[in-house]
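We modelled the chain as a single entity of 311 amino acids. Its sequence is:
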Amino acid sequence: MEQWLQDFTQEMQRLLSYSPTTAKAYASDVRRFLDSLKEHHGEPISPEDVVSDDVLNFLEDEVAAGRRRATVQRRVASLRVLERYLLLAERITRPFMPSDEQIMAAVQASAPSRTTGCLTTEDLQRLWQTLLASPKRQARRDLALVALMVEWGFPIGMLLKAQVQHVDLQDHVLWMPQTIGTLTRWELDYAYEPLRRYVLQGRADLGANADEQHLFISQQGRALSRQSVWHSLRLWGEEAGLDVILTPRLLRTTAAWRLKMNGIPAQTIGMAMGHSNPLSTTVLLRRLEQYCESVRPLELPRLRPEDDTAQ
């Protein structure tokens, strides 16, 4: 059983291109699953002997232990990665995950996750105006990041992988890198002008190195880090006087809710948000129906190209 975990952690990074941090997080969930297998069967079992009932028993145990819905969903995501690895490594010949309906039933039996909120139109206006009025060099970069996250719900990881050549200003398009190495085409509306300002002016103001091709860079001219984005957003939210902590997740859930209200299909929303499992999108949208129902209609600020104001 320990060999499972060791191989899984190493091969996740080689075969599936996961970072060490992500691999470690998935491995922690898989260890819990292996402990569950041993408890239910009385002894370690081989990968080929795992069946869907083993997964459902594990999820039921997690629910009984009081795990919140978001935690149970993370367990499911980890087991999907485990299944994918075992199939790729030819350790198993058939999938073992239950059907989406069975998983949904198990997830819905768990305790609700903590409130997922959405920004209001007024919140977004205040945030836009704060960024536009700021003399800080990073303000144009951060407005572009915020606009992209709140228009389509793009994850930070995808945005930070984007290259300068992925931007097509003529056609108002951003080509977003996917985890499998392909690019997807996204037409920009509200986020176009903030991104254009950053590409044509803001990026140079940050002192981009000549050989740095990442679209979003730090004030040292190098590729921007996740930690820097989280820190900057928190400070911008405080400066704008928002009564919530501004995070990438809050911007992305705001985007998901706006897209849903505008009739965008769940499949498109999930693709934009980087969900590998349609179930993740379904659960998120259901949660937002409960916590963001009062936030309507939600309109994004539109930046005018002729000046630095939003309308």
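As a brief sanity check on the tokenised model: The CA atoms of residues 180 and 243 lie 38 Å apart. The chain has 13 helices and three strands.
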